[in-house]
Amino acid sequence: MITRAIGATAGASYPLGRISMRLLAGSPDTNGTFALGEFSGGPGTWTIPHVHRACEESFFVLDGSFTFTVGDEAIPAGAGAFLLVPRGERHTIRADAEHGRFLTLWTPGGLEEMFIELSRLPTDSLQDPEVRRALASRFDSIPV
Fold this sequence. Notes:
There is one protein chain. The chain starts with 12 loop residues before the first strand and ends with a strand. The strands form 3 sheets. The chain has a 6-stranded antiparallel sheet with strand order 1-2-3-11-6-9, covered by helices on one side. The chain has a 4-stranded antiparallel sheet with strand order 4-10-7-8, with no helix packed on it. The protein has 2 helices and 12 strands, in the order βββββββββββααβ. The chain has a single domain, classed as Jelly Rolls (Sandwich), CATH 2.60.120. It is mainly beta. It has helices at 112-118, 129-136; strands at residues 13-15, 19-25, 35-41, 44-45, 50-51, 56-63, 65-70, 73-78, 82-85, 91-95, 100-107, 142-143. A hairpin with a 2-residue loop joins strand 7 (65-70) and strand 8 (73-78).
């Protein structure tokens, strides 16, 4: 068995405008079973409303405070909070503090590749519905 260990500041980082993603474990590292990323950034809306049809997405808040809107329910979440978004549930994320950070677990893995691609595009691409629609044909993140 191969063990992968990275330090507190190691791992590839991808700028996404207001936020950034540090990839802790990509799909190739886990044979596609899952992927794990750490997102951090400033206040405001981080995503457009979207759904995932083929994966569950989970969040564990490390720092700051967030509002996760799942369906029509606004869920406040601070450090230590865990949230699971089931497949097919519309959701958005807003950071309510000056700085926030959380872990995101995708099961199965693969969606992290969308963020890597978004990091190569203009800085507002994560929140651009047209860009996200174009990526939806290849990644399981569908704007709604």
